[in-house]
Design goal:
heterodimer, A: mainly alpha, Cytochrome C3, two-stranded antiparallel ribbon, B: 219 residues, mainly alpha, Fumarate Reductase Cytochrome B subunit, 11 helices
């Protein structure tokens, strides 16, 4: 009985250890924000680390920004906080979540002249 | 490719929109001036009640002898035009551009529905192409301009359909789609597509003449 229990516990630990990285930022391959209750297009392709290496972004706050009113707060970043905390899906004021994602990606890609800007380059049909 | 895309969704979209709006105003004003010059005596006979009576009858696919005489053409005409207007106006992809570029919220239909409506528009184009090519009385009044506008609409919806399904070279097809759409918009005032801005006045004129002058039905 004791042996059986330890096998189960070991298995559970193995599964947890195996699953944990799947949910960490390092291994993310797409942007699938749970704040969206219905997804109308396939999730946008996004490899967090690969992107930042290629784009040479080291400062988290480039994307994970913090705003106070209209002003971006320097030296502060918001990683770990869901985007939807400030950008509600159906926000009446400010920037709703869908607009926030689209602008965050395409504004930068347009400014840098690199990276995808059309719908289907990110929302790839599989 | 990004630069080409940014050009067609940016400056070129403004140019096409401006040609559509200013061109339509120009056509309406110059057509009115032409009516004043050539057919001044008909203008006092224009009548809102008889205009609306005719327009409402012709907006009903079962409301006129003309529609009843060609039920298939009537059915395709109505379905085609409804889908042609609803699809681009409420397409999610179009609304997202409006939202991302200008912060404008716009109602949308589902992509699945838009896909179906697009297929109906394409089927409608094929119907009209076959009809123009085979019906003798239509062949007689068909000119190059008629073919141009049908194929422009067909090209816009075919490339839109292919872009949505990400067939072939996605970015290239998408740019073709945007170019075709903008060509269509800019063509409205200056081609047969001008029935979009003129139909209500043409129908109103016919309704007024038949209702007020001839005391007869025009449907």
């Amino acid at each position: 009985m004791k042996k059986q229990l330890s096998v189960i516990l070991l298995l559970a630990a193995a599964v947890l250890l195996y699953l944990a990285p799947a949910y960490s930022q390092e291994d993310m391959t797409q942007l699938l924000d749970p704040a969206f209750t219905t997804h109308q297009r396939p999730a946008a392709v996004f490899n967090h680390d690969g992107h930042n290496e290629k784009a040479e972004i080291e400062d988290c706050s480039v994307c994970h920004h913090v705003y106070e009113g209209e002003r971006k707060v320097m030296d502060d970043s918001s990683e770990g906080t869901p985007c939807s905390e400030c950008h509600a899906v159906d926000a009446e004021e400010g920037t709703p979540l869908r607009m926030a994602y689209h602008r965050m990606c395409t504004d930068c890609h347009t400014a840098k002249g690199k990276g995808p800007v059309t719908c289907g380059e990110c929302h790839v049909d599989k | 490719m990004n630069a080409a895309y940014e050009f067609v969704v940016g400056p070129l979209a403004w140019i096409a929109g401006a040609i559509f709006v200013l061109g339509s105003i120009y056509r309406l004003v110059s057509m009115y001036a032409l009516a004043v010059k050539k057919d001044y005596s008909s203008l006092p006979y224009m009548d809102l009640k008889y205009s609306l009576r005719s327009i409402i009858h012709w907006l009903n696919p079962f409301g006129t002898a003309g529609w009843k005489a060609s039920p298939w053409t009537a059915a395709v005409t109505f379905i085609f035009h409804i889908c042609l207007i609803i699809t681009p106006l409420f397409l999610l992809g179009h609304a997202v551009l409006l939202e991302t570029f200008h912060g404008i919220e716009w109602p949308t239909i589902s992509d699945g529905l838009a896909d179906g409506l697009t297929m109906l528009v394409i089927a409608g184009c094929i119907f009209f192409i076959i009809r123009r090519a085979t019906v003798d009385k239509l062949k007689y009044i068909t000119s190059g301009m008629d073919w141009f506008v049908i194929f422009l609409v067909l090209a816009t919806f075919l490339t839109g359909f292919a872009a949505y399904h990400q067939w072939l070279n996605y970015q290239f097809i998408l740019i073709l789609h945007i170019l075709a759409g903008e060509a269509m918009l800019a063509s409205i005032p200056f081609t047969r597509l001008s029935h979009m801005i003129f139909w209500v006045f043409i129908r109103g004129y016919m309704g007024s003449e038949f209702g007020k002058v001839r005391h007869a039905k025009d449907w």
